[in-house]
Amino acid sequence: MKKYTYTEKKDTRSGFGAGLHEAGKKNENVVALCADLVGSLKMDAFIKDFPERFTQVGIAEANMIGIAAGMTIGGKIPFTGTFANFSTGRVYDQIRQSVAYSNKNVKICASHAGLTLGEDGATHQILEDIGLMKMLPGMVVINPCDYNQTKAATMAIAEYEGPVYLRFGRPVIPVFTDPDQKFEIGKAWMVNEGTDVTIIATGHMVWKAIEAGEKLAELGIDAEIINIHTIKPLDDEAILKSVKKTGCVVTCEEHNKFGGLGESVARLLTTELPTPQEFVATNDTFGESGTPDQLMSKYGLDAVNIVEAVQKVIGRKK
Amino acid sequence: MKHTIKELEDIASQIRRDIVRMVHGCQSGHPGASLGCADFFTALYFEVLNHKTDFTMEGAGEDLFFLSNGHISPVWYSTLAHAGYFDKSELATFRKLDSRLQGHPTTHEHLPGIRIASGSLGQGLSVAIGAALAKKLNGDKSHIFALLGDGELQEGQNWEAAMFAPFNKVDHLIASVDYNGQQIDGPTSKVLALDDLQAKFEAFGWHVINTDGNDMQAIVEGLHYAKTLTGKGKPILNLMSTQMGAGVDYMMGTHKWHGTAPNDEQLAAALAQLPETLGDY
Ligand SMILES: Cc1ncc(C[n+]2csc(CCOP(=O)(O)OP(=O)(O)O)c2C)c(N)n1
């Protein structure tokens, strides 16, 4: 198992803030909009340097999406910012009609996704957003795994033409990817090569998959770990190549197993290469209040759960 | 009056203590507007609302209350506990794992007193209207109360509801706005100004009254007066001016305490200003 270490922990939303600032410096068409959550979205640096390119819309997410769509018509590249729940479910039809169907170059940037939002509870913890967004034709869906990858992804989507959903989170987690990485939309990242099982992880679950990989190595199981940061378009090639070698797969996401990354992988495999698969994901449930660690543990999203899923899926190999 | 003004003020003081202790206990949550609305909640539950504490979802024959700005759950939970809906010891579980006192109010955990989830802003007025329509269909002449944040009024759904209620003569509805002039990113006047809310609601067909939400006498009288205005074809809007953080000097008048928990020292400073009257949980 390749050794991954970290010297600091940071939140992925700060990676977004830093990436937005960089994208703003690079391209004067980059504009930002926020619905009364500037601090939570870490937009301060952008606002400080480009006050005239920032729009505070107030607590009015539907209006924000519409305004963003309109701004693209003048050649702007709008980045909207609010919590993941209010970025998706709250404004689904506004995104569907004015952004996705109209193919507008809006970047929907969503913080506090998943259970790790913590104490605010289920009203704010969306576990369905990947599903909602990936179902929209033409929508790119990205869920980066640490500060550096989120920063790189934010800069990359500024250069990509078309609607994007960028999902990130609130808690501080290890920073373990390359600070100078080049982010390629739709391209999987090989975290660790192995032969016994393919672990496919996205977002906060990637570090947990690495922890699981270390535990599995101690048990004599050689896990291949792939980071799928872009859930749509999915890197079919990387997944098929790995699964051909390992013969079984575990998908890991901080999301409902209905509609998430796991289902995208299952759809691919069932048509191209039927393979035993286990899902590490929430099981058709809402979240609740608690600390992020407590919730990840209660809802089965820890390294131990990945280890168990791997053992189970290996047992199902023919 | 069921209580003297002094008695009500004492209850509000205890609720304020509970709020800062609850938010401190889990190091998260929203003290600012919870404190600002402590007098309103006290007046509502201990003086105005016709309600039973053996809770039923339908609340037939009872007045119902809906909290649209669900983030101020601490003030509601403390009020419900002191009003007898559940034991005050449960306040210690606020926002902790496996608690019925979720970060934002929810029916999912079956906490007595709560009839709908809130937290995602801008939805409560519609729900209150729906409950009022159902009461009308049931021939139940009880009142429906709702509380909305002022920043929350930036959500468009409120204005859909604001248009609906007068047109459909939803006239047993008393909606109060927590008019504290603050939201997360700053004063409401700087983020997206609400300007003349009275004129806006009147233009939509509401009967608007103004109250001072941090003066117990005024808020009790205002809510009683609002009740006398019902049944006359118009919904009632109570524009209630409050101070964010009311009762804790260093939290007052700034958006900074919208959603920040006090540390140990700040907690002590807050409690020193808030007499313990009914016993801490
Ligand atoms: C739909 C939605 N968007 C954003 C938020 C995040 N949020 C929580 S409270 C708040 C500010 C609310 O302002 P106001 O209604 O004035 O309440 P106060 O600041 O007085 O507590 C925001 C933006 C939310 N809970 N729901």
TrEMBL record, chain A:
Keywords, comma-separated and alphabetical: Thiamine pyrophosphate
Xref: SUPFAM superfamilies: Thiamin diphosphate-binding fold (THDP-binding) (SSF52518), TK C-terminal domain-like (SSF52922)
Names of the cofactor(s): thiamine diphosphate
Pfam families: Transket_pyr, Transketolase_C
InterPro entries associated with the record: PDH/Transketolase, THDP-binding, Transketo_C/PFOR_II, Transketolase-like_Pyr-bd, Transketolase_C
Gene3D superfamilies: 3.40.50.920, 3.40.50.970
Domain Transketolase-like pyrimidine-binding as annotated: residue spans: 10-175
Protein name as catalogued: Transketolase
Source species of the chain: Pedobacter alluvionis
